[in-house]
Structures are given as C-alpha cells and as structure tokens.
C-alpha cells in the first residue's frame, strides 16, 4: 500500500456563472491535463435566493458529461429534447451531452432559503464525443450509504466501494464518486485505484490528509508564513486537495469531523479543444460545433 502524496491544496475561488449565480470554483478553464478526465468542479451554495435564483438559463453542451449532486434545495431542469424534471436534496443527475444538447438548470432554495449543490464536468474520449445524449437521474434514497463501526459514512454515487456499487453506470471516465463523512478525531484510510487521477473536495468541518512525504500528515492548507492551519467550513473556505499516484488516501478528522467528496477517474490523455461548455479534440471540431450552434443545426435528430 502507498499513500498518495498531496500535490496541491487550493481554495475554491468565488465566481459568477449563468444568469448571475454566485458560486465557488475549485478548478476549471485552466490546464485540462491537471485532473484529466475531469474538467471543472463548481460548488454552488447560498442562504440568499438573490445569490442563485436566476439560475443557468438555456445553454449548450457537447463532448462532455455533467454530474450534478444536490444537498439542499432543488434544481429544475429542461432540455431541447423535451426532457424535464427536478432534483431534490440528495439527488444526482449524470447527463451525457454527447453530440449536443441545449438545457437549463434553475435552482431553488429549501424552506429556509438554502441552496447547495455541486457540478462536475467529465470529458468524453474522441470515440464518444458525438454519442447520443442521455440522462441518468437518481433519487437520494437509491444511493447506497455504508456506515462503518467508527461512525464513518460513505455515500457511493458512482463506482464500487466497501462492497456496495453506486446506481450510476456506463460512464466513459469509469469514475468513483464518494461523499464521505469522518467523525471527530477518527483517522481513516480509503483505497483509490492506482491508475486513476484523484482529488478530494472538503466542504464541511476540518482535518488533515496524510502525505507520502510527511509521515505524520500535513494539514489541508498552509498560510504564507508557513504556519499550518485547519480548513473550516466558515467564511467561505472550501478546499480542493489534488493527489499524486498511490493506492490510498488517509484523513484525520478534526474536532468537528470532516466531510468531503473523493473523486477519481481514468485519464483519457487526448488533446482538448475547449470553448465554454463545448469540449472537443481539435480546433476544427470546435469551430464546426460553434458554426452549428449559430446556424441552428447543433442538435442532432434522434435515431
């Protein structure tokens, strides 16, 4: 067994998307090889409807898959193929955009006005860029959760873990997507396939991840002066941890416990030509997609 080294910790950065949704972006629109096959990760949450109610009106996607996981509130969605629905707290939608789709996502808060969810973009390999679009909508009650004897809880959204398999299948990146809570003071190790790229996203509580180069562990973030500090889910701190190669990740929970997403996938290692929500392999393919979007032929007829 080998601990994955911590290559980098990074705070998610505040940004604005859609028609004016305030969110935090952990990565995206930078180096697409960094976390290949994953391209972008957003954390959208707020206690004020003005921060999210304008949502994400009609926009295109091609060449990728989008994974939306809702914790609080709801997200109503519709698309150019006539599909529509609503994601509630705990629900997941895995959308394969494939050859192209126009859709919209409109978040609403719960009774207290709170909204919280995540969206991850996964790349598609060249052979599946133009596959037919499809959805996998999964209710929270259908997502298996395993509880260990020390109180550790793991929701298995995609992939197999601790003898359970998540309900989303047939995904090109063959990912593992886990929602993990480790109780206060507990140290826990999680296996991750050696050949996958992996990252963790801490969104609640505090803790530290063991580092291969630091046997006693390294806290999630260091200040400029070199002092080690806990990352807490206060005042907007949300942290990405990018791991190197190895087959396990070890975390020590702080006094509040720690909750994080642990996500990994097989790298595609192909060229990326990227413009907004359209991700192809070459600039010619990208220009073709934009021409089709402009002349109204972006959506392929169903076969």
Notes on the structure:
The protein is mainly β. It has one domain (6-295): Jelly Rolls. The chain is 4% helix and 52% strand. It is built from one helix and 26 strands. The protein has one helix spanning 283-295, and strands spanning 6-11, 13-17, 21-27, 38-46, 56-61, 64-72, 74-79, 84-87, 92-96, 101-108, 115-123, 134-138, 145-147, 153-158, 160-161, 164-165, 176-182, 187-191, 197-211, 214-219, 221-222, 228-229, 239-243, 248-265, 273-275, 278-280. The strands form six sheets. Strands 1, 13, 14, 17, 18, 19, 20, 23 and 24 form a nine-stranded antiparallel sheet that branches. Strands 2-3-4-11-6-9-12 form a seven-stranded antiparallel sheet, with no helix packed on it. A hairpin with a 5-residue loop joins β13 and β14 (153-158). It starts with 5 loop residues before the first strand and ends in an 8-residue tail after the last helix. The model is unreliable at 214-236 (pLDDT under 50).
């Amino acid at each position: 067994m080998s601990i994955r080294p911590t290559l980098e910790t990074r705070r998610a950065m505040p940004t604005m998307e859609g028609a004016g949704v305030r969110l935090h972006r952990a990565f995206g629109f930078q180096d697409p090889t960094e976390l290949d096959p994953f391209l972008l990760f957003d954390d959208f949450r707020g206690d004020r409807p003005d921060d999210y109610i304008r949502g994400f009106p009609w926009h295109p996607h091609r060449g990728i898959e989008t994974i939306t996981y809702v914790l609080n509130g709801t997200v109503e969605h519709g698309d150019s193929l006539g599909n529509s629905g609503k994601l509630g707290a705990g629900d997941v939608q895995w959308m394969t955009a494939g050859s192209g789709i126009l859709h919209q996502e409109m978040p609403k808060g719960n009774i207290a006005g709170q909204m919280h969810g995540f969206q991850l973009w996964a790349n598609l390999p060249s052979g599946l860029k133009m596959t037919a679009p499809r959805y996998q909508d999964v209710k929270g009650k259908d997502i298996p959760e395993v509880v260990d004897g020390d109180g550790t809880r793991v929701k298995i959204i995609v992939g197999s873990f601790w003898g359970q398999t998540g309900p989303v299948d047939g995904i090109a990146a063959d990912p593992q997507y886990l929602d993990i809570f480790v109780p206060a003071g507990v140290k826990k190790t999680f296996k991750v396939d050696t050949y996958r790229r992996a990252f963790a996203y801490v969104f609640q509580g505090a803790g530290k991840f063991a580092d291969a180069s630091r046997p006693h562990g390294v806290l999630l973030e260091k200040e400029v002066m070199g002092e080690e500090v806990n990352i807490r889910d206060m005042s907007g701190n949300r942290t990405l941890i990018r791991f190197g190669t190895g087959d396990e990740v070890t975390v020590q929970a702080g006094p509040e416990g720690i909750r994080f997403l642990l996500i990994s996938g097989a790298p595609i290692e192909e060229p990326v030509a990227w413009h907004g929500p359209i991700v192809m392999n070459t600039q010619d393919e990208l220009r073709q997609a934009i021409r089709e979007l402009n002349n109204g032929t972006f959506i392929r007829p169903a076969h």
